[in-house]
Design brief:
Distance between the termini: 41 Å
CATH class: Alpha Beta
Number of strands: 8
Number of helices: 2
Largest sheet: 8 strands, mixed
Number of domains: 1
CATH superfamily: Aldolase class I
Helix content: 10-25%
Shape: globular
CATH topology: TIM Barrel
Structural class: alpha/beta
Mean pLDDT: 92
CATH architecture: Alpha-Beta Barrel
């Protein structure tokens, strides 16, 4: 079961989108100098399944995307829950984004999302806005393939 700690609207997490950002707790990554260490606490916050419909209904008219910041503890049931939430948002006409934070490739279950951010935060390489970052943001194209759009975060 997924828990969330807060929600906000942001034009920054997903390029070209106004996103409903949902911060998921239970992160297992333990990145050095994590910007939000409270998200490492399991079962911290409120149960997302009880509120996802209300959250989307509340912010629907102000957003074009729902961005899930985190995967929870990584259990299969939580991955399935995230996919269901993404499908629900897409049925409402919203795009979806998953901020994984793990050092991984795009896994099969993640392909339900329109955007995927992968890679742990590594201070020596910087965040997404650094040209030396190890993190990557991908966007699904019309053919269902994912293209690296990380460069859209870089300031020149």
């Amino acid at each position: 079961m997924l828990y969330y700690t807060e929600i906000c609207l942001s034009p920054y997490e997903v390029p070209g989108e106004q996103s409903i950002c949902i911060y998921i707790s239970g992160c297992c990554n333990r990145c050095k100098n994590c910007h939000y260490p409270e998200l490492q606490l399991p079962e911290h916050g409120d149960v997302l399944s009880k509120r996802i419909s209300d959250i989307i209904d509340l912010y629907y008219s102000q957003a074009s995307c729902v961005c899930f910041l985190g995967e929870g503890t990584g259990r299969q049931e939580e991955k399935e829950e995230l996919v269901r939430f993404a499908e629900f948002a897409q049925q409402k006409g919203l795009k979806t984004c998953l901020y994984s934070g793990r050092d991984t490739f795009i896994e099969e279950w993640m392909k339900e999302f329109d955007y995927i951010k992968i890679g742990s935060y590594q201070e020596d390489f910087g965040a997404l806005d650094s040209q030396t970052t190890n993190q990557r943001m991908y966007r699904k194209n019309a053919n269902g393939e994912f293209e690296d759009i990380t460069f859209l975060f870089w300031c020149e």
